[in-house]
Specification:
By secondary structure, the protein is an alpha/beta fold. It has helices spanning 26-37, 91-101; strands spanning 19-23, 40-44, 48-52, 60-64, 84-88, 115-118, 124-129. The longest helix is centred in the first third of the chain and has 12 residues, at 26-37.
């Protein structure tokens, strides 16, 4: 039996290869998340960019989509397609750094411990204190 599959033991048969985020400008969005996470760019061109996870986990990809439009998450009846959440040591400091990188802060927030920000391509992401 493959080391990827063992359905009889309740494990899955696939491993996450990468999370790819749609956007209008893969190079710019990869630069934003590269600075936010401290990850290195493995590849970047007009159509696709990849950031390597230095901890050995799955990388992040960014793919150009023609006619890309941001998610309407910040509207009360809007929906989101996905979001990323990140642990941070200091919420206020991390928020300030993300805003300096080009994130924006919507008026609507879910709660007190998770700070929702919007990346430069319009995707929501969350920052939460580690403790």
């Amino acid at each position: 039996m493959s080391d990827l599959a063992d359905d009889q033991n309740g494990t899955g048969f696939a491993r996450l290869a990468m999370v790819t985020i749609d956007c209008a400008d893969p190079v710019a969005l990869a630069a934003f998340y590269g600075e936010l996470l401290g990850w290195e760019t493995r590849h970047a061109d007009d159509h696709f960019a990849i950031l390597d996870n230095p901890e050995g986990g799955s990388p992040l990809g960014f793919g150009r989509v023609s006619g890309y439009k941001p998610e309407p998450w910040t509207e009360p009846d809007g929906s989101k397609h996905f979001h990323l959440d990140f642990y941070v040591d200091d919420l206020d400091e991390a928020t300030a750094k993300a805003l300096a990188l080009g994130a924006t802060e919507p008026t609507f927030q879910h709660g007190r411990t998770l700070k929702v920000l919007i990346d430069p391509a319009g995707h929501p992401f969350g920052l939460a204190p580690l403790d």
